[in-house]
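Read as chain and fold; for instance:
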Amino acid sequence: MFLTCDPDGDLVLVLIRELEQEGTNEVAVSGEVAESLSKEVYMASEDVHMLVSSRHMSLASPVFRAMFQRNNFKEGRELAANGKAEISLPDDGPDAFAILMCIIHGRNRSVPRRVDLDLLSRISTLVDKYQLHEVVEVMSDRWISQLEPELPEEFTDDLLPWLSISWIFEKPSVFKEVTRIAERQSNGRIGEDRDDIPIPNRVLDAIQERRVTAITDAYSIVETILNTGEHHCTAPP
């Protein structure tokens, strides 16, 4: 697959799209192929090439700007020597990355006006990785405002993506609500099994500390009531 963000681009980015494919197991009976006995799902992949402008990338991202300087990385030396370069980005999801490239290159009609939570979470991860906060601010504000009515009211699998999104895009009201739920309803330190979501450890540690403090205070209150004998029912007859 080839995506052209800038027809005059000098940089080809190579990403990998994981594909789920279904295969069949067949057996031969009396020299003939019998009907399939079972089906298996296996992962395949395809390369996604994106033709982009190194100048646009440098203006949008300090990470890419540093990469393209000839004295820092081989990509910069290759770009300076040949006027073009190819960079492999195997860890970046092509769907989210393509949206960011369209924003950076001003291809506004190719930018979705609405995204789901999973895609926004993947976009936010790339925004954090490449420091693209300013260039996506208008669209991220729009996407978040559309999804905000779906903000969970209890601890679910959606809470951690919301925590990451609200932290990366600096949405204090959403962040406050999400951390409140995490502190009150989580069963332990959150984020232990999600290396793909970029939330600083200091944030996760602070949530856990406040959670433990609240539990300790609650136990202390219960212990005081039990020790003083003030645990009788006070409701009016």
About this structure: The domain at 1-18+43-111 is CATH 3.30.710 (Potassium Channel Kv1.1; Chain A).
